[in-house]
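$ fold --in a.seq
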Amino acid sequence: MTNKYHTISEIVAAVYCEQKVVFDREHGDATPLTVRRKALHGTFEHQRFAQEGRTRAVIDKRCFIATSIYGIDAPQTNLLRTWRDSVLVKSRARRLFVFCYYRLSPFVVPMIDLSAWLKKLTRSCLNLFISRLGQK
């Protein structure tokens, strides 16, 4: 199995030292064992971090306001989660929005839950937003 990741040392060596690349190709890699161990550990940590990011995106069930309005596994809540995971996390500004949402919404939800009027208004706004998402 070939490794699809390259260590920074490999990249730097290829960019700044063509002679080392040629030497290694002709005579084998003479990198000390301690350096190889550290490079392998770095590669492993990179892969672990990448996998953790993919897994976290799949199992992230947070969607506080929609969960309060529709329920934790309601189709509307899942649609909003899918939209978050496929659209909102694609740019820095949108990720900032998600970050702010997760910081503020736990404080907003209790206020919504205490007011029937506010809950109805929030549901109407979310329904409108979800219907627009369905048209795209």
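$ fold --in b.seq
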Amino acid sequence: MTRVSVIGLGRMGRGIARRLSSRGYEVFGYDVMTSAYSYLKDLQNFKSLSSPADASESDFVLLSLPGGSELLAILPQLKGLEGVAINLTTIGLEESRKAKSLAEDLGLKYITAMMEGGPTNAEAGTLVLYVGGNRGLYEASKQVLSDMGQHIYVGSDESAVALKLISTLILMANTVVLAEAASALKNLGAPPDDIVKALSMGGADSAQLRSRLPLMLKGSYKELFSIELGSYVAEEALKALKELGSTFTPVLAEVSEVLAAAKQRGLGKSDISEVEELYRLLSLK
């Protein structure tokens, strides 16, 4: 039985642990918040670890952490790991370089797999994964990646990170545009589901229209992708765009500013679709 350790049991990590458990893997997990284990207590083939170092005998270690600083703190604890360490943590290009360099210094077999999708996708095995790093390690990891979702090899670790950042910024730009129009759409007086269906039949259709516009129109939000994380990703994506040659990005820079303003007001604890509340509040002034 393939042994997988998930380091970081937040919403995404827990979903991945559940998915791999259902696929017959022997799943171990670690989180600094011991309360995270209670969400997985019903799994028959899950065991908690007392520290990341205890994952040393795993075939794969999946790193699903809050950010780059946590990733850099965990990697040294994996020294001696014979299996493959797969970073799933959303980070910027500079943090990616630091993590890659540190992993090499530690002698780790390390690749990057940037995730797209939310906790529901993680549990259903329908994530999208941009994979970068050593091609041989990618080939050796294909089965576990396939059990997590669709995956594509894009070259270097940095390429995987850059694609994730840029893709997510485009996604958030679409969400902000929908938020700007949401109040007007509500005032049409038609049922929210009919509005979404009508718009999805034409050129305005998008994944965000179908998944996030209903949340805005109904004022009912799911725990998906917080504005705090979204704001961080937007800042890192703008840095990546500039480094890669897109130096004039006024529209995307404005998206980043909108997210920062929403974050400042304490909005978006559950999802970036809550940016609609920022527009509603500003419209009342």
